[in-house]
Specification:
The complex is a heterodimer of chains A (96) and B (411). By secondary structure, chain A is mainly alpha-helical. Chain A has one domain. Chain A has a two-stranded antiparallel ribbon with strand order 1-2. Chain B is mostly helical and 411 residues long. Chain B has one domain. The longest helix of chain B has 42 residues. Chain B is globular, with a radius of gyration of 21 Å. Chain B starts with a helix and ends in a 5-residue tail after the last helix. Classes of the chains: A mainly alpha (96), B mainly alpha (411). At the A-B interface, helix 1 and helix 2 of A face helix 5, helix 6 and helix 9 of B.
Chain lengths: 96, 411
């Protein structure tokens, strides 16, 4: 029982750290890029904005949104008896 | 009306009432941080959370008919109730479920009155364990399952309860630390604005996940009662009206907003900022979704509390109010036995007196205690207007609002 629990919780810890801490970190990177793009009062240093960084920022936010969309797909599909498989890298729905 | 029909009606009513308390008890898990940082206005936050819980409840078409099997032995693994409990239109089974639900509701209301986020699923399980033990003895309780998989009170309730807050706290600590590290050099006000959006998104995910998990439990309990009484024979589907009733009950509960609990989670534990809030909700969403994807459900409450605590640990110079945290942990420890005791006492009382009188006395006690607690909460009301006020550690526990501000306040 304890072993079973240990291995299950171990997996939860591993995946949660990657997604649950990685996602805010990625979002933080986007916020920083956006601030560098805006420049001026957005940054502590008050430097002039670098417009290219805005593009980097929005790409980052798009990646964050995509990860959340996959999360949603997992919740919704499991409710309908499907699961999301990453076997082909691109997420696909398969019947449980 | 036969006694069993009366019992069935009362079981359905108390189950829906439990679902309602489940909703308002858990609003804070998803929305406390967004309310505390001002990312969402209090009313907007509970509204959003209610809608997402409603949607979530309908998304979970997976059958939850065997929900009680996690902790008690009332049903077979196919969902059919044990035949020996079915005499007299399922009188004994209905009585057990009825008393278990009462244990769950009363514990949920008491912890809400004290402003303590405790797990609604543990309250329900505790109540059922107590009433089952009172009716069938301790052998009616599924303590460990058969040992081949995570099952029973130990595998599905106690072990996850110890582990989940720690896991969530760890993830949120790392997340918060990374977020502050990465955004060094960004003006604080600018970062706050950005993270508020992230916070709303992740909090929404937590609300949706909550709806898919928690509404199901009540649906399973009501359907079990219908099967026991004999009006339903299908053990693979939940009737549509049950699904509607539970979905709307949990959403209505969520919209009511357990403001006392929201306040404890958003203001009491840690003074939270938007980056911390986003890290906390992202951690909660990730832990809840990963664990339920792997087939074992963690309590949303334990995860959310752990995450918020972690967001305080991960930020340099942030204060964590350990006194508040200890009160919560204490409440978690006694949730199962306390709800169990209420469930057991109700069963002894109802069954001992017997007949219509027994059932009505137990139900009367539930109603009376519910009104007493609601009336008591009004003395130091917490509501959308004062939920974000400065934390008053010395004021009434469970509200911690300055007393002069509560005069004339509406709940």
């Amino acid at each position: 029982m304890f072993q079973l629990f240990g291995s299950a919780i171990g997996q939860v810890v591993a995946v949660s750290i990657v997604i649950g801490a990685g996602l805010p970190a990625l979002f933080a990177f986007g916020v920083r890029a956006l601030a560098q793009g805006a420049g001026g009062s957005a940054e502590v240093s008050g430097e002039a904005g670098k417009p290219m960084m805005k593009i980097v920022a929005w790409i980052t936010f798009a990646v964050v949104l995509a990860v959340i969309a996959i999360g949603l797909a997992i919740i919704i599909s499991s409710g309908f008896g499907y699961k999301v498989s990453f076997e082909h890298i691109f997420p696909t729905f398969i019947k449980k | 009306m036969t006694l069993e029909l009366l019992l069935l009606i009362l079981v359905i009513g108390t189950a829906i009432a439990f679902d309602f308390t489940n909703g308002f008890h858990d609003t804070g898990n998803a929305m406390a941080t967004s309310i505390a940082t001002g990312a969402l206005k209090p009313k907007t936050a509970v509204g959003l959370s209610a809608v997402l819980n409603l949607v979530g409840a309908f998304l979970s078409v997976e059958v939850a008919l065997t929900v009680t099997n996690a902790v008690v032995r009332l049903q077979s693994s196919s969902g059919a109730p044990n035949p020996e409990l079915l005499a007299n239109n399922g009188h004994e089974l209905l009585m057990i479920v009825f008393c278990g639900l009462i244990g769950g509701i009363l514990w949920n209301l008491l912890t809400w009155l004290l402003g303590l986020p405790s797990s609604s699923s543990h309250a329900l399980f505790g109540g059922l364990i107590g009433s089952t033990a009172a009716a069938l003895g301790f052998s009616g309780v599924n303590w460990m399952g058969d040992g081949t998989k995570l099952d029973g009170v130990v595998g599905k309730v106690i072990l996850p309860a110890f582990a989940s807050p720690v896991v969530a706290a760890l993830v949120a600590t790392i997340g918060t630390w990374l977020v502050y590290k990465i955004t060094t050099g960004v003006a604080e006000r600018y970062a706050e604005g950005g993270f508020r959006w992230g916070q709303i998104g992740t909090a929404s995910l937590v609300s949706l996940a909550h709806g898919t998990n928690d509404a199901q439990k009540t649906m399973g309990v009501i359907t079990l009662a219908l099967i026991a009484y004999g009006v339903q024979t299908d053990t693979t589907t939940v009737p549509l009206w049950v699904k509607f009733a539970c979905a709307f009950a949990i959403a209505a509960g969520t919209y009511t907003g357990g403001w006392r609990i929201i306040r404890t989670l958003g203001k009491g534990l840690v003074e939270i900022s938007a980056p911390q809030g986003m890290a906390a909700e992202a951690s909660s969403a990730a832990v809840i979704l990963t664990s339920s994807h792997l087939g074992f459900a963690l309590s949303t409450t334990h995860v959310a509390t752990g995450s918020i605590l972690g967001s305080g640990l991960g930020k340099r110079g942030a204060d964590v109010r350990w006194g508040v945290a200890m009160r919560m942990v204490l409440a978690w420890f006694i949730t199962l036995p306390a709800a169990g005791l209420v469930g057991a006492v109700c069963f002894w009382l109802g069954n001992g007196i017997g007949g219509y009188a027994g059932v009505l006395i137990v139900f009367g006690a539930l109603v009376a205690l519910t009104f007493w607690m609601i009336a008591h909460s009004r003395k130091t009301a917490v509501h959308a207007g004062n939920v974000n006020d400065e934390w008053q550690p010395d004021a009434t526990p469970g509200a911690s609002v300055a007393s002069d501000e509560t005069i004339g306040a509406k709940a």
